[in-house]
Amino acid sequence: MNVNINESWKIYLETEFEKPYFKALAAFVKEEYSHYQCFPKASDIFNAFNHCHFNNLKVVILGQDPYHDIGQANGLSFSVNDGIKHPPSLVNIFKELKQDLGVAYPISGNLMPWADQGVLLLNATLTVRAHKAGSHQKKGWEQFTDAVIKTISTEKTNVVFLLWGGYAKKKKKLIDTKKHIVLESGHPSPLSANRGYWFGNKHFSKTNYQLAQVDEKTVIDWTLE
To answer: How far is the CA of 174 from the CAs of 4, 101, 146, 178, in angstroms?
Structure first.
């Protein structure tokens, strides 16, 4: 696996790349991609880092696994490529966005404009075998992405972490809540959203409120049109 990650992150993470667990992970991913169809495409595995540079990082949105159907995953949590039907969780994210900020429901589900403004859309596991959800879990990715969260917590201040659902909430222990803002809610999946744990969380406006307390110029333009 080629670790094509932006230089702004390399300074903080290069020691991770030398650890035995990461070398084993890289070998596993290389083997999987050579024998099976996997997502996202190899050049997009580190897209979250390449679109959101470390020095520009303002917000972290944690996901779990990449989408595992053809054409969906693009290396950013919850995001899909242009022209791809919006998965159910993304539909609910956009419904809450419209309800919270009154912005139009986006045509494209590609969240790269958020990433380019400093939103790290980080999945706990960065790769998956086609049509096999969770197939690359517990191979080392979680150790790496936990190290990413700890690094952000240590090296940055006033980052807004959005923890959606039980899995993401478990990562709170990695974050120094004296230095950072943590907003929690249910997951945007239909199961959670339909039980009333997602809609009305107003995380988009709350995030901008928190960012504006530090610097009004740092707020995120959440519109995608």
So the answer is: 25, 30, 7, 12
* Residue carrying the six token digits 């020691």: 15
- Is a pLDDT exceeding 90 seen at residue 193? no
The CATH number that applies at residue 165 is 3.40.470.10
At 38-81, the pLDDT tens digits run 999 999 999 999 999 999 999 999 999 999 999 999 999 999 99
Q: Please, what's the b/e burial string for 20-57 (b: 16 or more CB within 10 A of its CB; e: otherwise)?
A: eebeebeebbeebbeeeebbbebebbbbbbbbbbbeeb
Residue numbers annotated as active site = 65
Query: Are the CB atoms for 53 and 60 separated by under 8 Å?
Result: no
* Residue 155 belongs to a domain: yes
Q: Would residue 121 count as lying in a domain?
A: yes
pLDDT in tens, 153-184: 999 999 999 999 999 999 999 999 999 999 99
The tokens of 47 are what? 């897209």
Domain annotation covers residue 14: yes
Say yes or no to pLDDT of 223 above 80.
Answer: yes
Q: What beta strand segments (E) does the chain contain?
A: 38-39, 59-63, 119-123, 128-129, 160-164, 181-185
Q: What is the pLDDT of residue 195?
A: 87
The whole-angstrom separation of Cα 74 and Cα 44 is: 6
Number of domains within the chain = 1
Across 117-122, average pLDDT: 98
User: Per the domain annotation, does 46 fall within a domain?
Assistant: yes
Give yes or no for a contact between 30 and 2, defined as CB atoms under 8 angstroms apart. no
Sequence-ordered list of residues with C-beta below 8 angstroms from that of 15, at least 6 positions apart, any chain: none
